[in-house]
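Quick log. Single chain, no ligands specified.
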Amino acid sequence: MSSIAGVYSKRGESIFQQIIKMIRETLHRGPNFVGVDLNHNIYRAREIDRLSVQVVEGSSGIGVASSTAGQPFSSEELEVSLVCDGEIYNKEDIEQLTNREILSDKESILRLFEKFLLSKPNISYAMYETIRLLDGVYSFALFYKNSFLIARDPIGVKPLYLSEDKSRIAFASERKALWSIGMFDIQTLPASSWAIIEESGVKVNYLESLKEGYNRKVSLKTAQDRVIKLLQKAVEKRVRNERVGVLFSGGLDSAVLAKTMQNLGYKPTLYCSGAENSKDIIGAVQAAEELDLPLKINYMTIQKVEENLPRLIYMIEETNPSQVSIALPLYFSTQQAKKEDLSFITSGGGADELFGGYAKYIRVLKYEGYEALHRELFRDIKEISEANIHRDDAASMANSIELKLPYLDYDMVKYVTSIPPQYKIARTNSDYIRKFILREIAKKIELPPSLVNRPKIAMQYGSSSQKLLEKLAEMKGFNKNLSKEYGYHSALKLYIETIARTKGVPGINPELQKLVHKIKLT
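-> predicted structure:
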């Protein structure tokens, strides 16, 4: 769990305090240790204040806030250092390949890069070969000589943002870090890519990506068995022997995940947040009883939502009401997990896009057929990082909890995108069965029948988070007439953007400052 950042000055100006600002803004992603490499001089500390008082000059540098010590990692053989947010699962394989002991999974990246660059002094070759051999989720930056080499994992589970102006180029794990140093024209480094940052600018290089075609000959049974094994392996990579929590609604995705863990010998704690008597709370209680697993419930109330909403909006950097209402129960559940000293939590995120869980997929199938359905599913997986993962990552990291997504393991994604769409949404005489193969898998792993057939309910409706937000906005006087006065179609959107304006989110209508008196800030 980490936050990474870097600044490259085109004019040779000192950038140390800018990096400190960026790290300070995102300490929630790695609250225990901080470190900076400025012009290849490394400084580490337990507290950001101890680091910030250093008088250090340098025009290029990278920084990190991390939950574990050691970053930035450095090389004894090359002028290169590394900062990384994420987790590498095949450290042991990399130790064998490099023929050396590696203390941290993240350090594996640096040791691979060293090996390949020393064997062939070509940066592109070293980056491609390094990334090709990594199994994990990550965004990282190598500070090599006078350039930065940055990269993201194939699915884009870990975020990384870029910005450039006349005097500098910068990157960070969250946009607010770039806002803190006055950079607002921000782009996302695409998933499955790496970039070189140097005086001439930024050059992005795209890596091998998912293939859109699918295997028409694979049998349903073969596909089921393979997905079961891949999910087990994905869980084992991420959980190992640690305490584990599951974001839980009692729905199919989280229930299959929890049952898989249970079958592997783990006893996960389930976490659910929602309004009292909401469908998610009722479903989670019933499911937890059937699975015989402990369930922690965080009841969302109007008061709790009002107290936490300003921070959540700023943390997820988002004002879309749908996105905020989805993030809200996740935020409360990870808040609960943090109180119980968990360091990470797992989620069923990605299952809807992989297996065909959304209602829109039935419309595509009904009017355009299976080939169009496959294209739609494939496109949604390619875009899942921007659409969903960034929001969920930010909401959980706001509570210093890392979110782990077994369904989005790269081996799982490669395989599931290659199976026929007919296995994902099955046609019956009078209806369509969404996530058909996952329901069949649920039966094979002995999930109780009531959970196998539970219908899909969107999080904002199942938890009643959207109703709570709409009621809160109405209580604060944000109604249709006020929305019309300020040119908004939604009173909730107006309310959320008014809060965002007061929290310093850029790009918000300055006229909304007039409405600040209506809201409560904490």
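The two ends are 26 Å apart (CA to CA).
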